[in-house]
Specification:
Layout (H helix, E strand, L loop, with lengths): L1 H34 L6 H16 L1 E6 L1 E3 L4 E4 L5 H10 L2 E5 L8 H7 L3 E3 L6 H13 L5 E3 L19 H7 L3 E8 L17 H10 L3 E7 L9 H15 L24 E3 L3
Parallel strand pairs: 1-8, 3-6, 3-7, 4-5, 4-6
Antiparallel strand pairs: 2-9, 7-8
Helix pairs in contact: 1-2, 2-3, 5-6, 6-8
């Protein structure tokens, strides 16, 4: 009984602080818009806020593997909206989102303020994105994150990765670093991190706020060179994500002709803190 009451009080307190953090997010977003990207990096604002949100939610990030430095295309398996907080807090990258989000109330305002790139679903939808993204990368701007599976999963497997967005790395000559996220069950043994199926955002946020805390592993995979066809690059990046998660490699699709190993991509790297 006492534990239930204390748990309810903790959830209520977290909810109030989370609402305050949301108000702070809009304040930061407005500041970024007023200052402009040359005075304040939008990705810095998202990272600053995400680190505080993770602390409030009781989410601890454990990092494993060599973290490369410099501009990169970061690709990652997709489990939850929490992924965005984890990656923004760890890397301060730009993100790619579906074009509908641009016009969503509140969320669209935040996404636009932190320099999100947008992609339209369907045939030819990636062309406008690539037109904007490739020169941006060639100009030496920051890294960006792609979730090439195209949807969220329960985290137990990795879906085939769509190769079309890998064209940005190939065209700009930017290396690809695979990332792998694994959420551990909470202290009550529940897998609450996956945001899948008919789940609603409000209900999921409620479960996360009520949880005693989560641990997420962020694994940095081996850097992949852009000097290979995008289909091959996508398959190799997916294979590296699967390796980081302890999963067997998926057989190469018929469109992928894997010959000799790809040439190594070796910019400076630093060990990720555990």
């Amino acid at each position: 009984m006492v534990a239930a009451v204390l748990g309810g009080l903790r959830t209520g307190a977290r909810l109030l602080i989370f609402l305050a953090l949301l108000l702070l997010a809009f304040a930061v977003a407005t500041l970024l818009r007023l200052a402009g990207p040359r005075r304040l990096r939008p990705a810095w604002g998202a990272g600053w806020w995400s680190r505080r949100a993770l602390a409030l939610l009781g989410i601890r990030v454990q990092r494993h593997g060599p973290r490369s430095r410099g501009r990169r295309m970061l690709i990652c398996n997709h489990v939850s909206w929490l992924d965005i907080l984890v990656l923004a807090a760890s890397e301060e990258p730009h993100f790619i989102a579906k074009s509908e989000i641009r016009h969503w109330p509140l969320v669209g305002y935040l996404a636009n303020s932190v320099g999100t790139f947008y992609i339209r679903r369907g045939r030819g939808g990636a062309t406008p994105l690539l037109t904007a993204l490739v020169p941006w990368l060639r100009a030496g701007e920051a890294s960006f994150v792609v979730f090439p599976e195209g949807t969220t999963t329960d985290g137990r497997d990795v879906l085939p990765m769509h190769p079309r967005l890998f064209e940005a790395a190939v065209a700009a000559g930017v290396p690809v670093q695979p990332l792998a996220l694994r959420y551990r069950p909470d202290a009550r043994g529940r897998d609450i991190a996956p945001f899948i199926g008919a789940d609603t955002l409000a209900a999921h946020i409620g479960r996360v706020l009520a949880s005693p805390g989560l641990t997420v592993e962020l694994h940095y995979g081996a850097l992949q060179t852009p000097r290979q066809p995008r289909d091959v690059l996508a398959w190799r990046a997916e294979t590296e994500v699967r390796r980081c998660l302890g999963l067997a490699a998926r057989a190469a699709p018929s469109s992928v002709h894997v010959g000799a190993p790809a040439p190594a991509a070796a910019p400076a790297a630093e060990a990720a803190a555990a």
